[in-house]
Amino acid sequence: MRFDIITIFPHIFDSYINESLVKRAREKKVISINVHNLRDYSKGRHQKVDDKPFGGGPGMVLQVEPITRAVQKIKAKNKKTRVVLFSTRGKTFEQKTARRLSKYDQIIMICGRYEGVDERVAEHIADEEISMGEYVLSGGELPALVLLEATARFLPGFLGKQESLEDIKGYYPTYTRPPETVIKGKKRRVPEVLTSGNHALITAWRHRLGKRK
User: N or C: which terminus of the chain carries fewer CB neighbours within 10 A?
Assistant: First the structure.
């Protein structure tokens, strides 16, 4: 699966995509990640990609034309592609959203900055707008990383074991050694059922406490 990220801060992604599961998935060619500097798609000598909003107001707005050129250039031919714009007005990102997006061959993510993105991007270029929640971030770069990993987890080969996927095993509490420790002056033990060796009881306990989405 191919992920393409359009941003004015491409180096934000350097560390994250070269570590842990994401790095391994790239090496195994489960996913490919391409980070595109929006300024490369500006026609001006100064690589200008923003301008003042019509009607006045503070801040600058990312222009529609560089984004249009970027998406046209990046969009793969004969592939099932989805173009996502991160926006506070978008639909809230959920596990079911990630599962749905994992069915595409290519996801193009547009990361806004400053006072936002020219509305014509949402109206005519993006296939959907996504919000990460009821809060505001300075740009779409962190949402892009969240969407990337949450979606990639559904792809065979991304996780070491597919049964590690929470959709399969559930969201139950987990513990590890030591079985007993002192926290805030009191002994805190692992639930007895987990050290019983009775796998039927352990499974029932996990099903009872596990939260499935």
Answer: C
- Are the beta carbons of 153 and 98 closer than 8 angstroms? yes
| pLDDT tens sequence across 11-23 | 999 999 999 999 9
- Other beta carbons within 10 angstroms of residue 168's beta carbon come to 10
The two three-digit tokens of residue 92, written as one number: 């809230």
CA dihedral 20, 28, 76, 3 (to 10 degrees): -10
The single residue listed with the structure tokens 């547009």 is 110
Q: 3-state DSSP call for residue 87?
A: strand
User: Is the CB of residue 4 less than 8 Å from the CB of residue 36?
Assistant: yes
Nearest to 151 by CA among 108, 111, 196: 108
Stated pTM of the model? 0.89
- Tokens describing residue 146: 């969240």
Say which residue the tokens 């069915």 belong to.
Answer: 103
- Sign of the C-alpha dihedral, residues 81, 125, 59, 35? positive
Rounded Cα distance, 117 and 38, in Å: 12
Task: Render pLDDT for 56-94 as a digit per residue (tens, 0 to 9).
Answer: 988 999 999 999 999 999 999 999 999 999 999 999 999
